[in-house]
Each structure stands twice: as C-alpha cells, then as structure tokens.
C-alpha cells in the first residue's frame, strides 16, 4: 500500500490493548519490524501512526461515534502510557 | 407449570501430558516442520514441569476444587514458583491425572482397537488403574499389550501417531483408514483424547454428586474437535460415545459447537430442554485439546519459565429439573451476541451483559460474580495477552460507569468484588464461563451470593466461514425453594388481567342477551 499510494498519503491507526503491543506495531510501520520476523523487517517506512485513544484521532472524529465505539475502552485502557509510547515512536522514526 | 432448571453438580479434571506438549501441541509440531533445529525445541525439555509441580500449582488446585478462586488472591503472582501446601491430586470436583494413567484411559475408551500399548507399559499402568477409584472395572480393557517392535512398525509403515511417556515410545494410535484424512492417526489421536478426558470429567461428575447415571436422559458435548469420516467431517457424536463409556444407558445426546462459547450455548440448551420438560437430566461434557498444549511455550521458554500449558482440561455439568435447592438457570435472562450486534467491545459487552440485565430490571452491580473467560493470567501475561478476566471485568465496570450505575472511582473495587482471578488452563472452550459452575453452585446455596452470570465468548472467525465473533450469557440465581414459573410475577398480573377481561366479556354477553 505504501508503494502504491505513497507513504506520505498513509496514516496507520492502531487499536492495541496496551502500550507495549501498540509500540511494537508502531515501530513496525516506522522503523521496520523490531522482531525481524515479517515482511517489514529492515524496511523503514516512517509512516504516520496513531492509536485510536490518542487526542489527535479523537479530535478528528464525530464525538458521538467515538463515544459509542471507543468510549468504554478509553476507560479501560492505560491511555497515558499508550500515548507516551506512541509519541516516542513517532518522534524517533516518523518521516512525515 | 414450567419451572427453571437447576445446576445439580459438576466435575472438573486436568490431565498432565508433558510428552504430548512436544509431540502433539501445534506450536511445537509447527516448529518441528518449519524450523527443526530451533533453539526453542532444544530448550523445551528443560522447561517441562514434573507431575508434582503441576499438582502443587495454585490455579490447578482451584480447578479441581481444593482452593477457591478467592484463595488465589492470597498468592502473589507469578504463581508457578509457589507450591500450595497440602495440595492433592484429588479434589472435591475431580482430579489431576498423570500422563501414564491417561494413556491407559485412552486405550480403555477406544472402541475400535486403534490404541496399541507396549506390553511392559500395559503391565505397569494396569497396576495403577487397579488403584484408581473410578476405573477398576475397566482394567480388563487394557488387555495384554503389544510388542514394541510392532508399535514401531505401525508408526513407520502405517502413519500411526506415537504415544510417549517420559521420553520413551510406549504405544501408538493407528489410523482407521488408508486415505481418509478425517480418520488418520492424528485426528483419531485428538478425538480419543477428547473422549477420554471428557469421560474422566463425567465419571467425576457422577461420583462427586451422588448421581444415578441411569437417570441421565441426554448428553451435550461441547468441545472444539470434530469426529466423522471423509463423507461427514463433523458427523459426530462425542456425546453418545462418552455416555456409553460412563454407562449412561438411558441417554442419547449430540454435539454442540461454537468455539470457546460452546459450553455456555450448551448450558442454555440444557436449561431449556429441562425447563420445557423434554428431559429431566441433561449433562454437558467436554474433553481437552492436545493441539493447544504449549501454545504460548515460546514466550514461556524465552522468559525462563516452565511451560505452563502442560495440562488438558475437561469438565462435566448436570442440569436437572428444579429440586428447590440447587441454583436456577434464568432462561429469561439470556444474553446473545447476534449477527447485527457489531464488534466494538462496547457492543459486545452490552449484548452479553447489560441486555439480559435490562430484561430483568437489574443493574450491573446486581450480579454478585461474573464468570467470563477465566484464563489463568500466569499463562497469558508473559505471552503478551494480558490478564484476560481482569480486562473483561474492567470492560463490564466501564459500561457500568457509562450507564451511571457505578462511579468511575469504583472501577477498581468493582473488578475485585464482582470478579475473580483466572485459574483455568488455556484450552479454548475450557476456561470460557463454565469453570465457575462448580463454585457457583456452592456460592448460591451454602455461600452468600444470590446471583451470578456465566459468559461464554468464541472466535468464530478462526474457522474462516464468517468474520463474526460470538458469545452468549445466562444468569444463575439462588433457589428460593418454590418451584416458580418462569417470570412468575408478570404472569400473575397477566392472569388477573385475563380473568377481569373474561368477566367483562361474559357480562357484556349477558347484557346483550
């Protein structure tokens, strides 16, 4: 998809349940697969990547739909640590 | 008068199968095919627990009823490095069977002479089975055994699956057909394991609850395997096969499938069949899955832990007509994840938890205990899957907050008060809602709880026929002692209303006349 549409035109949205898993997925689409297991091993796409509980996404969508789809999980997840992890990955590896 | 059905009794068993982790668990068999020289396979033997450690393990003692789920909270995690003092093989719900006896049991339940055991091994296990409280009478079925050379020949020349104990070949499961993939040795091995472990749980259900096995009318088997041949891959039926083994002479049965949600589907079906008066006693039963042994083994080995997925699980539950004592199954308070429900966690929890509560005019806090996917977090946390029951309780609590039935700051206490730590092995259908039924019967009779909810969920998409997920739930309540009509309070009102209506009608006819 990055090749077809251009990496600058892609945003990856994650829904992982905790910071470590979100970070792993985010690193995969920015700096390349840290486990060197999949097709993105060593491929540094540098895509923009956000988690569904981050304010950047939350502010971009209809609040009623957000509340219906994600409101409950927002209470359950450790939102602060997910945001911190996502920020850190973007600051290090995001190219766009 | 239709009265609610009750949960009359239960049986829970674990089987320690250390050699089957390597030979039959799919994580390991896949690794052997794709990466035969892997570090993981080399290290694996050092991470296998001995039988004593498996018996002394806290979550296992809870599963067979020697500890309560609440007792587990007294032990700091991880639990695998702590032995439970006074732990025992047998518990009030069942037992933790060692591998050699289980291999003997596979032979005992084999109706087609497919299990072949070595002579020396047979002599050894015969002795042990003579001393087992439930299988003395079945010992002759072990016969005399075979020469090891013949067993080796079946494996080398006829694709039989080896049975190993303490690293040594002690027998095999033969294929039942030359080319039928559904009757190959691999499938028959898995199916005989389901049959044997299911029968073991059923035997304990009968033994522990003073049940006359001849009174059982119907059996619903709800595991995740399929038995049949190339013309009907899931033809069935484990239920009747297990009923035969345990001597339920007056029963027939059928298999219910729904991935991990199947046991709760089966519970609702059993309750409905009994409440409708079709049958008086319906047993649910499920055996364990060898495929899932060591499923998260790579993570456990990487973290220097023992492989904790070293047991098969099995359970059996009897649902009977209302005895005025045992907890009732509220078939009017059933939750369903329907085709149209949607997949957001919020939609899932709403459909399974709050929709049935709304039907009964109940709040989230009116359920004393929720039994969700009770996976042991000792197994799942190191594998990156988190604490599954806790995550479920947090979601239920969060929905309570959204419904203004709970303060946000009480989220944590809700999880503790209305939840339980997980104790069930990650055997798919085994941890899903049903592991609590044994304790629920006690908590709702001699204990101090009044209402619990059993929730089962299943990942249907794994079968590639739908992208949908599934789940069902049912409320279980303390028995008031009166054989009440389903929805009694409403129908009394309705009856009065109907009588009044009829009187008016009659009067108007008289006036006209």
TrEMBL record, chain A:
The keyword Transferase does not apply. It comes from the Bacteria. Keywords: Oxidoreductase, Selenocysteine. GO terms for cellular component: glycine reductase complex. The keyword Oxidoreductase applies. One of its GO terms (molecular function) is sarcosine reductase activity. InterPro entries: GRDA (IPR006812). Its EC number is 1.21.4.2. It holds the Pfam family GRDA. Monomer. Component of the glycine, sarcosine and betaine reductase complexes, together with components B and C. Belongs to the GrdA family. This is Glycine/sarcosine/betaine reductase complex component A1. It comes from Thermotalea metallivorans.
From TrEMBL, chain B:
Residues 347-512 form the DUF5940 domain. Its EC number is 1.21.4.2. The keyword Metal-binding does not apply. Keywords: Oxidoreductase. It comes from the Bacteria. The lineage of its organism: Bacteria, Bacillati, Bacillota, Clostridia, Peptostreptococcales. The keyword Oxidoreductase applies. It holds the Pfam family DUF5940. This is Glycine/sarcosine/betaine reductase complex component C subunit beta. GO terms for molecular function: acyltransferase activity; glycine reductase activity.
């Amino acid at each position: 998809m990055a090749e077809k549409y251009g990496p600058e035109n892609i945003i990856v949205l994650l829904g992982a349940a905790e910071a470590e898993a979100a970070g792993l997925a985010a690193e995969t689409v920015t700096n390349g697969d840290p486990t060197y297991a999949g097709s993105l091993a060593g491929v540094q796409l540098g895509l923009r990547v956000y988690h569904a509980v981050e304010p950047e996404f939350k502010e971009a969508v209809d609040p009623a739909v957000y509340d219906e789809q994600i409101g409950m999980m927002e209470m359950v997840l450790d939102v602060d640590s997910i945001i911190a992890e996502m920020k850190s990955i973007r600051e290090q590896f995001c190219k766009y | 008068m239709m009265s609610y059905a009750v949960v009359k009794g239960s049986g829970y068993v674990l089987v320690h199968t250390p050699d089957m982790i390597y030979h039959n668990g799919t994580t390991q068999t896949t690794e052997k095919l794709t990466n035969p020289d892997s570090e993981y396979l080399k290290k694996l033997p050092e991470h296998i627990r001995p039988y004593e450690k498996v018996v002394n393990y806290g979550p296992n003692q809870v599963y067979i009823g020697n500890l309560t789920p609440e007792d587990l909270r007294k032990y700091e995690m991880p639990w695998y490095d702590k032995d439970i003092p006074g732990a025992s093989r047998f518990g009030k719900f069942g037992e933790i069977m060692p591998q050699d006896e289980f291999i003997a049991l596979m032979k005992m339940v084999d109706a087609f002479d497919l299990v072949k055991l070595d002579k020396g091994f047979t002599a050894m296990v015969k002795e042990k089975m003579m001393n087992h409280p439930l299988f003395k009478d079945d010992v002759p079925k072990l016969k005399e055994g075979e020469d090891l050379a013949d067993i080796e020949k079946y494996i080398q020349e006829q694709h039989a699956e080896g049975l190993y104990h303490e690293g040594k070949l002690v027998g095999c499961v033969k294929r039942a057909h030359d080319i039928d993939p559904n009757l190959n040795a691999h499938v028959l091995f898995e199916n005989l394991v389901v049959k044997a472990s299911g029968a073991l749980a059923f035997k304990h259900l009968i033994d522990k609850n003073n049940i006359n096995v001849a009174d059982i009318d119907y059996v619903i088997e709800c595991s995740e395997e399929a038995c049949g041949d190339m013309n009907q891959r899931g033809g069935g039926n484990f239920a009747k096969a297990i009923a035969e083994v345990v001597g339920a002479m007056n029963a027939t049965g059928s298999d219910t499938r729904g991935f991990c949600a199947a046991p709760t589907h089966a519970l609702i079906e059993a309750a409905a069949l009994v409440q409708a008066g079709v049958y008086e006693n319906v047993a649910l039963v499920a055996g364990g899955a060898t495929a899932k042994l060591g499923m998260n083994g790579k993570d456990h080995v990487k973290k220097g832990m023992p492989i904790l997925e070293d047991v098969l699980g099995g359970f059996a539950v009897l649902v009977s007509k209302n005895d005025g004592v045992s907890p009732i199954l509220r078939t009017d308070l059933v939750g369903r994840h329907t085709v149209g429900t949607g997949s957001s966690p919020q939609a899932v929890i709403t459909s399974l938890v709050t929709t049935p509560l709304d039907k009964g005019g109940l709040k989230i806090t009116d359920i004393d205990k929720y039994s969700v996917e009770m996976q042991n977090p000792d197994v799942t946390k190191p594998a990156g899957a988190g604490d599954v029951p806790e995550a479920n309780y947090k979601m239920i609590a969060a929905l309570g907050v959204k419904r203004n039935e709970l303060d946000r700051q009480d989220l944590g206490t809700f999880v503790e008060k209305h939840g339980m730590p997980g104790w069930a092995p990650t055997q798919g259908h085994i941890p899903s809602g049903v592991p609590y039924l044994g304790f629920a019967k006690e908590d709702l009779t001699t204990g101090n709880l009044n209402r619990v909810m059993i929730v089962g969920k299943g990942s249907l998409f794994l079968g590639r026929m739908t992208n949908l997920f599934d789940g069902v739930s049912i409320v279980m309540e303390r028995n008031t002692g009166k054989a009440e009509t389903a929805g009694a309070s409403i129908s009394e009102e309705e009856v009065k209303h109907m009588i009044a209506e009829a009187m008016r009608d009659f009067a108007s006819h008289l006036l006209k006349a």
